[in-house]
Amino acid sequence: MSFYEYLFVRSSLFFLLYTVLTGTAFYLWPGLVPYLKTAHVHAGLVGFFLNLVMGVAFWMMPRPAQIRQEGLEALAYYTLNAGLLLRLVAEPWALYSGNPGLRALLVLSGVLQAAGVAVFAFAMSQRVFTREQLLQMAAARKKKSV
Q1: Which of 2, 9, 86, 104 has the fewest Cβ atoms within 10 angstroms?
Q2: At what angle do helices 3-28 and 51-60 cross, to 10 degrees?
């Protein structure tokens, strides 16, 4: 497991804990619900679920020709999680304060998260091949080495 694969999985556990704690806080302080509800759901779906899926996919998906994608892993990790953390701060702040100027931060958070997903999709597209394509690649490598 590479460093960024490790970070994806560890971060997912952090966001799982955040989701559980905010969900519990809703029962203790119901007044928080209007401000934290969407951040709570987003932390669970993007923070926990998507980080876990991406980390495990980068780790477990086949690597034709033993390709290494640490640059793409890093870019996907940092853009996804920077956008998520920005949203977890900016959204409750915007809802509480009613400041429309904070919408720009929410747009930026969405752009960063979308960029992280796009980088991930590109990286995974470099690993997905049919059996026939893999056999052709292996034959071409074998022919090159001879």
Answers
A1: 104
A2: 160
SS (H, E, C) 52-100: HHHHHHHHHCCCHHHCCCHHHHHHHHHHHHHHHHHHHHHHHHHHHHCCH
Q: What is the pLDDT of residue 65?
A: 66
Structure-token pair, residue 20: 């559980």
The dihedral through the CA atoms of 79, 82, 86, 89 has a sign that is positive
Q: pLDDT by residue (tens digit) across 1-24?
A: 889 999 999 999 999 999 999 999
pLDDT value at position 130? 80
Instruction: Give the number of other CB atoms < 10 A from CB of residue 104.
Output: 11
* Residues 57, 78: Cα–Cα separation, whole Å: 16
Which residue positions in the chain have pLDDT lower than 50? Answer: none
Cβ contact 67:86 at 8 Å? no
Residue 30, token pair as written in the block: 């119901």
Per DSSP, the chain holds a count of helices (H) and strands (E) of 6, 0
- Chain centroid to Cα 76, Å, comes to 7
- Report whether 5 contacts 73 (CB < 8 A): yes
Contacts of 53 (CB under 8 A, 6+ apart): none
